[in-house]
Design brief:
Length: 329
């Protein structure tokens, strides 16, 4: 692993598999009554969120706490300072406080790179979503969920549907899934596909019904109205009719195919309530898996030891008392 996790494009197949395997190991341990590992005791993880988030922020917080790190939640929303300055000032403040890792979400694409590379901090930086650019831990938790259900990636067909233009989840997923050997097809109205998508390691299609029978996993994306400033499609109804996943379309998926969504969902828009709650949906599992995957990422970055997974051995698990001295990492 590198020093930071900024983009799935930086991950080799070995890196990605190491994270998924580590997360799998951690998930197994988390089935025990006492979920906490002593591994990051005395380390500080800062959640630096300049943009709204419910599940990602909480997920990182739970992950860091389960590794016994101290967690500081720094919600920078509403700051009147211009974004570049506020990011720098905040980084310098956190540096002075001795943060070991900074988990950053920002509305500007590239914010996580800036934080990692501008010399403002010596912390490990984890990108928790930067503008429309990348959201690597989301892609990793999606890959973790797919691997569990589909048994692997080779030749598996993943269909990603919706607002690709504004989706950092789609970008991170396309890159990671290509690295892992899956075949990805994006389905979206032409107005919601980015310029240059032809150079991405995936296929592009416009007819959802044609792609559905060939999908092992289908990932629905939210239409990101907060990042839009114009009419990208005629009406909500028209969008749902062409790109929404409803019960009829669900019925045409192959038998073992899974339905995914990174959340937050707009029920009735990109996904019907019936589909979201169906037994093909793994949406709630994605959230649970997010904690294990983020634990693995923090663990691998902060332990500074790639082979460290060997150290998350059951005997290190404190059985009665999470503060037990004998359980030190
Ligand atoms: C996504 C995000 O913030 O990029 N959500 C998430 O992290 N779970 C997708 C979205 O906002 O639609």
């Amino acid at each position: 692993m590198r020093r930071h996790l900024l983009s799935t494009a930086d991950l080799s197949q070995d890196d990605a598999v190491l994270i998924l395997d580590t997360a799998e190991e951690i998930a197994r341990l988390a089935a025990r009554p006492i979920k906490k590992l002593p591994t990051l005791r005395g380390r500080t993880v800062v959640n630096l969120f300049f943009e709204d988030s419910t599940r990602t922020r909480t997920s990182f917080e739970v992950a860091a706490k389960r590794l016994s790190a101290d967690v500081i939640n720094f919600s920078a929303k509403g700051s009147s300072v211009s974004k570049g300055e506020s990011l720098k000032d905040t980084a310098l403040t956190l540096e002075a406080m001795g943060a070991d890792a900074v988990v950053v979400r920002h509305s500007a694409s590239g914010a996580a790179y800036r934080l990692a590379n501008a010399g403002w901090t010596t912390s490990h930086v984890v990108n928790a979503g930067d503008g429309t650019h990348e959201h690597p831990t989301q892609a990793l938790l999606d890959a973790f969920t797919m691997r569990r259900h589909l048994g692997g990636f080779d030749g598996r067909r993943v269909t990603i549907v919706g607002d690709v233009l504004h989706s950092r989840v789609a970008r991170s997923n396309v890159q990671l899934l290509a690295t892992l050997g899956a075949r990805v097809t994006l389905v979206a109205p032409p107005t919601l596909l980015p310029v240059g998508v032809a150079n991405w390691p995936c296929e592009v299609a416009y007819d959802l019904d044609a792609v559905i029978p060939d999908s092992d996993a289908i990932m629905m994306l939210r239409v990101q109205r907060e990042r839009m400033n114009g009419g990208f499609f005629p009406t909500q109804r028209e969008y749902s009719r062409r790109y929404g996943l409803d019960a009829q379309r669900l019925a045409r998926l192959p038998d073992k195919a899974i339905v995914m969504h990174p959340g937050p969902m707009v029920r009735g828009m990109e996904i019907s309530a019936e589909v979201a709650d169906s037994d093909r949906s793994v949406i709630v599992e994605q959230v649970a898996n997010g904690v294990s995957v983020r634990m693995a990422v923090l663990y691998l970055l902060l332990s500074g030891n790639e082979s460290a997974i060997g150290h998350v051995a059951p005997q290190e698990y404190p059985h009665e008392n999470t503060e037990s001295k004998g359980a030190a990492a």
